[in-house]
Design goal:
alpha/beta; Rossmann fold; five-stranded parallel sheet; two-stranded antiparallel sheet; 46% helix; binds zinc ion
Length: 230
């Protein structure tokens, strides 16, 4: 039976694992990325590279990998005020959240993805939201994601399912999941090609590219270390 999924694919580590997860479960998988005026283009630039490497290095997935979409969501940039969209220091804000929090981002991403899925005849969305190692972002919570899925199902009068394979696992387990899905080849691809650094730094490390100091790099590096030690 054919089944389709649309993966929210940023070009980072988590969404690449989500894409592999979808490719191992669905017969046709499309991808969508969002240009929301993020300060660093490194992540978006990684998207086509990761997709091409998945096509050439994983023949079992190549024929399942369908169209890639890039949607502008520069409303988030126009609203601004986040360390990811403006020259704001990465630190804890007065609201108890890191300044990297982009208010409404995941809700907007899911809404845009569901609307695109509606046009493409796809009702299964896959996203890398995670409550386990998260930075306290309220829009990464399972309750937020599933309530959004419910609102979208009502708003579109069509069932929208949001799969979040990383919701309850930590970064070390995310690396392990990558290995289970695509072997050491997928782990190597993620190390070599994905970008998650908040500073958009591409300095090489054994755990991948990044500044090594921002919260995203620290999380990625410590997860990789724990994964390798296990
Ligand atoms: Zn970094």
């Amino acid at each position: 039976m054919s089944s389709s999924a649309l993966v929210l694919f940023s070009g980072g580590q988590d969404s690449t694992v989500c894409l592999a997860w979808a490719l191992s479960r669905f017969t046709c998988v499309e991808t969508v990325g969002f240009d929301y005026g993020q300060r660093h283009a490194a992540e978006l630039a990684a998207r086509p590279v990761v997709l091409e490497k998945l096509r050439t290095g994983f023949p079992q997935w190549a024929e399942k990998l369908g169209a890639d979409h890039l949607l502008p969501l520069d409303t988030l940039k126009a609203i601004g005020g986040s360390a990811l969209t403006d020259a704001v220091a990465i630190e804890m804000g007065a609201n108890g959240l890191p300044t990297t929090f982009v208010p409404g981002r995941n809700v907007m991403f899911l809404t845009a993805a569901a609307a695109l899925g509606y046009r493409r005849g796809i009702s299964d969305l896959v996203g890398g939201m995670c409550e386990t190692d998260f930075s306290g972002y309220p829009d990464c919570r399972d309750e937020t994601v599933q309530a959004t899925a419910r609102a979208l199902s009502l708003g579109l009068a069509r069932d929208v399912t949001v799969h979040t394979p990383l919701m309850w696992i930590d970064k070390a387990a995310t690396w392990k999941l990558a290995e289970e899905l695509g072997g050491s080849e997928l782990v190597d691809l993620i190390v070599a090609e994905t970008v998650t650094c908040y500073e958009g730094d591409t300095s090489p490390h054994d755990w991948g590219h990044g500044c090594g100091k921002c919260p995203s790099c620290v999380l990625r590096a410590s997860g990789y270390k724990k994964y390798r030690a296990a």
